[in-house]
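Check the record.
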Amino acid sequence: MSIVGLLTFANFNDVKAQDAPNAEGTEQIEATDSAVAEEAVAVEETVAAPADDTKSFHQMLKEKYIQGGAGWMTPVLLCLIFGMALIIERILYLNMASTNVKKLLEGIEDNVKGGNYEGAKELCRNTRGPVASIFYQGLDRVDQGLENVEKAVTSYGGVQMARLENNLTWIGLFIALAPSFGFLGTVVGMVQAFDDIETAGDISPTVVAGGMKVALLTTIFGLITAIILQIFYNYILTKIESLVDQMEDGSISLMDILVKYHK
């Protein structure tokens, strides 16, 4: 009986020993599954977070404008607004001043060949642009001699050139003012940063960050404004040069026609 009892107790302990590892393995698997699930949720939140923080260009621009300080960013913005207004006006004026000089000269030659100077002047009146205005002033003085015609064409050419260059001085002023205001904001921001350092008695990044941000943002916006205005300013100069070349070549051709057919 004693022997049978010992064998029964040993078998019972072996069964318990086998059940214990199985239970521990089940608990480890459940813990692993739980950890994997938590990591997946964390990854999903990390991926979804940038989408929530995404801002439009307009919002970012507005935020940087406020951070730069309205007192220094507003003058730069005004330079951009007024400068672009003048640029748009000049571009529209110059585009309307463009003339088909070759066609106009052909019409004038046809009228002058037949002695119809009034018809040639009417053609100039009905044609827009500085070239047609110069031709009209010359034809209007044909009766006074070719020398007076040449003087009138030259003088009125200078008048038309001044009209083409109207408001360019103001555009140049805004191009110069925009970065100047930006640099002024930079200097003020640096002074503010040093004042904060003096007040705190410590040169830590958090102390000087505010003043440095004002300094950098005003400079950036001032330079961007100047670059934009400068690009359009050079485009306007190119258009003016093209129109001036048309006026000069057209004036020479007009004098040649008058010399050829004037009696």
